[in-house]
Amino acid sequence: MLVKMRTETLRALTDGWLAQDLDAWTRHVLRRHFDPEGGSAYWLKQRSDLGFDPLEISRYDELSTFGSFDLALLRDLDPADLVPRSVPRPLRGRVFESGGTTGRPCRVFYTEAMALQWTAWHQRGRETAGFEPGRVWLDAGPSGPHVVGQELNHLAEIFGSTVYAIDLDPRWIKTLIRGGRLAEMQEYVDHVTDQIVDVLGTRPVDYLRTTPATVQALINRRPDLVAALRGVALGGTQFTPDAYRKLAAAMPNGVIGTTYGNTFGNGYGLPSPDGGATLPYVPGFPHTTMAVVDKDDPMRVVEYGEVGRVRLTVLQEDLFLPNVLERDQAIRHRASPDWPCDGVANVQPLQVSADRPEGLY
Question: Residue 90, preceding bond cis, omega within 30 degrees?
Fold first, then answer.
């Protein structure tokens, strides 16, 4: 999935996407997936059972007629069935997974167009946060089946960086938590932290990319190493205002960058407007949109400033997933007058139970 492209070109792509008319883009994506000859096998099979003609939909808001897409379908569905037949076969690319910490993983195929979109928005997020190219990074995060693992090569090839890497397995640590094997969990946390300390303590590293829980473990263990960093980039599902303030205090001269999302859609963090009390994110428009909806009525969008459940819609040319209800809640956020869609802020788990521990991720 490595995309080699100049940062100026990637910025031009995101600028162009932000200028897209969302209604027109919606019609374009639906025509592509429901085209009788070149559409995706899954959606063409579903068409007769929808009860409406998807090609008659003219506005983004009308996607509510699809109802909520159940991601559990992706545990057994052939990922190729979601990719339009107009994409040349055999498919060449990666299958990435999501949700493997809460059951069997869901899988989607990433086409070249999807990889480019993912890369461009992550690059824009780095620039927005204030990370400088050409620096030295330590990446301590999931790899393997996780799309976030692709960041390693992007940092090296696109951002012109030297990158050290440490693997993190969120599925294993959550398995330990669910099984009540807390001593083993702590051993794994120590195992990851030991590796981070070894690199930061012996090499000149500018930036650390990891998860909020991992950086907190590092602050508890070696606050001096955190204080010496120029910045931290955080990914995962939960980064609270309290955690932001603790990291800002531990790293007073560094930048804090954030991402929110999963394999299906991603967003990047905007600078906090109030010292960390509000932590906003914007999605990779128009391929991904996020709405904050009533927890009891997932088709009703809440008011700005109100808390609700995050609803994700994927409008990729090569992947269409309408109205996916995430396991997170957030505040509906008005990004800026010139931003074409809503953002979300202060994301946290919709519910936390023994079945869904947060672990290191």
Answer: yes
Specify whether the CB–CB gap between 294 and 287 falls below 8 A.
no
User: d(Cα 136, Cα 160) in Å, to the nearest integer?
Assistant: 9
State the CB neighbour count (10 A cutoff) for residue 139: 23
HSE, CB side, 13 Å, CA atoms: give it for residue 25: 22
pTM, entire model: 0.91
pLDDT value of position 247:
96
Are 207 and 131 spatial neighbours (Cβ–Cβ below 8 Å)? yes
Higher pLDDT, 236 or 214: 214
Q: Between vectors from CA 19 to CA 17 and to CA 23, what angle results, nearest 5°?
A: 90
Judge whether 320 and 82 are in contact, CB under 8 Å. yes
What the block records as the tokens of 290 is 């996020």
How far apart are the C-alpha atoms of 276 and 86, rounded to whole Å? Answer: 45
Give 224's DSSP letter.
Answer: H
Q: Tell me the sheet residues that pair with 332.
A: 344
Residue 284: name the closest of 325, 239, 335, 327 by CA: 335
Q: What are phi and psi of 235, to 5 degrees?
A: -130, 165
Spatial distance between the Cα atoms of 181 and 155, rounded to a whole number of angstroms: 35
Q: For residue 321, give the 3-state DSSP assignment.
A: strand
Per-state percent for the chain, helix, strand, coil, to nearest 5 = 40, 25, 40
Least Cα distance to 238 among 166, 327, 127 occurs for 327
> In whole angstroms, what is the distance from residue 321 CA to residue 103 CA?
20
Residue ranges of the alpha helices (H) in the chain? 7-18, 22-33, 41-46, 112-129, 151-157, 170-178, 182-202, 212-221, 223-227, 241-250
Per-residue model confidence as pLDDT tens digits over 73-97: 999 999 999 999 999 999 999 999 8
Q: Are strands 307-316 and 288-293 parallel, antiparallel or unpaired?
A: antiparallel
- For the beta carbon of residue 152, count every other beta carbon within 10 angstroms: 19
pLDDT of res. 50: 95
CA–CA gap between residue 145 and residue 159 (Å, rounded)? 23
User: What does the CA dihedral 311, 316, 320, 325 come to, rounded to 10 degrees?
Assistant: -10
Distance CA 120, CA 257 (A): 16
> How far is CA 17 from its chain centroid?
18
Tell me what the mean pLDDT of segment 288-306 comes to. Answer: 96
